[in-house]
Design a protein that fits this description.
Helix content is about 70%, strand content about 0%. It has 22 helices and no strands.
Length: about 400
């Protein structure tokens, strides 16, 4: 199959706009953004924020990922990661077939340890290893749960489904991510585990965040918090509830509701004061550091870039923080640096993100947006920036 030059976001918006028989003015009105913004994005002179791209996607009746261009198939094919997606899809599809007579599952302790190892691989952003080994683990754990049903067995199966969601999300397959979340709900119901169920609602809210459906995402945050409240009091419940509050903060910020974002952050901070750093409690990376990082993200999502950079200076990242979270934080900082005219610093932040989590960074739509902004801000791209753009497929 011949490899073609990928379209930019602006080119995709223009193509869908013409399919919908809309002028730039008509699209701007339907999306609730300025004509100037639509014009500049289509011309490649400006990178729209996630909330702007989501609004345009809604006006065009397409998914935000259609405009972003995910999944990035050329790069996935180059890295031989595209071949790992279908086996995960097949493994998710046998959830209700009962015991597979050709599988002799290992003891549950070993399966639970393997499910935890998958979560650790995701946090270390070793997506290739996780995606390669995950289908077999899902199939084995599915048989184990049907063979000897227990709350722990269903929770372990739900954990493998969660990893499938993580892989699909990071590689840009929202349909597969949605399927994995449905399977996670199915397993959580059988395990009668409010914590797993609440984490599933939290992850679901993030899917709506990426889709730009902030109202529904915020409703899911409320449901997730209410579900977590059914669990036994203690550190685990506090960690999960606190992380759900952080999800609510980002959703509110993206929805330009600064007061609600601050309320969520304040509640999360109260939880973090009790829990301390809790990077491995359900692999949520919750704690004071994550609260501070989410405060930066919330400010960036409200276009308060200078304030975000001021807060970022006070954030102290633990040495053992997961690479996935640390790299995402550097990506958010790069975005704020770009919009405040600090192009060289923004590029250094992107280099740091690549060093921390190369696979995650290569497939990040936010990184592509920032690189596009850096390229448009410079009359001639330095060789290092050009090489970086080529590495991510631009």
């Amino acid at each position: 199959m011949p490899v073609t030059e990928p379209e930019s976001i602006g080119q995709r918006i223009k193509r869908y706009r013409k399919l919908r028989h809309l002028t730039q003015t008509g699209l701007a009105t339907a999306a609730g953004v300025s004509y100037s913004m639509v014009f500049q994005i289509e011309q490649g002179k400006k990178q729209g924020s996630p909330s702007v791209i989501a609004a345009i996607a809604r006006a065009l009746s397409v998914a935000a990922t259609d405009l972003i261009g995910q999944p990035y198939l050329v790069e996935l094919q180059q890295d031989q990661l595209d071949v790992l997606i279908q086996p995960i899809r097949w493994a998710l599809d046998v959830y209700d077939l009962g015991v597979d007579p050709d599988i002799a599952p290992r003891p549950l302790d070993k399966l639970t340890a393997e499910a935890d190892r998958m979560c650790a691989l995701i946090r270390a952003t070793d997506l290739r290893t996780a995606a390669t080994e995950l289908p077999a683990l899902i199939l084995e754990t599915t048989t184990a749960a049907h063979m000897a049903p227990s709350d722990r067995a269903w929770a372990t199966l739900a954990s493998t489904y969660r990893t499938a969601y993580d892989v699909a999300t990071k590689l840009g397959y929202p349909d597969l991510a949605a399927l994995a979340l449905d399977r996670m709900a199915w397993a959580a119901e059988r395990g009668s585990d409010p914590i797993v169920a609440s984490i599933r609602q939290y992850l679901r809210s993030l899917a709506y965040l990426r889709a730009g459906e902030y109202r529904t995402g915020r409703r899911l945050v409320a449901v997730g918090a209410a579900t977590a409240a059914l669990a036994d009091p203690g550190r685990v419940r506090d960690v999960v509830t606190g992380q759900i509050q952080l999800g609510g903060a980002v959703l509110a910020a993206r929805d330009k509701d600064g007061a609600a974002a601050e309320e969520h952050l304040a509640e999360a901070a109260r939880m973090a004061a009790r829990t301390g750093e809790a990077a491995q409690v359900h692999w949520l990376s919750f704690g004071p550091s994550n609260v501070a990082a989410h405060r930066v993200s919330a400010l960036v999502d409200q276009d308060l870039y200078a304030r975000a950079l001021g807060v970022a200076k006070t954030v102290r990242i633990p040495e053992d923080w997961p690479a996935s979270r640390a790299a995402h934080h550097r990506t958010e900082i790069a975005r704020a640096q770009l919009w405040t005219g600090r192009s060289d610093q923004a590029f250094q932040s992107l280099l740091a993100a690549r060093h921390l989590a190369p696979q995650q960074t290569r497939y990040s739509s936010s990184v592509r947006d920032t690189v596009a902004g850096l390229l448009s801000a410079k009359r001639s791209a330095p060789e290092t920036l050009a090489n970086y753009a080529s590495w991510i497929g631009m």
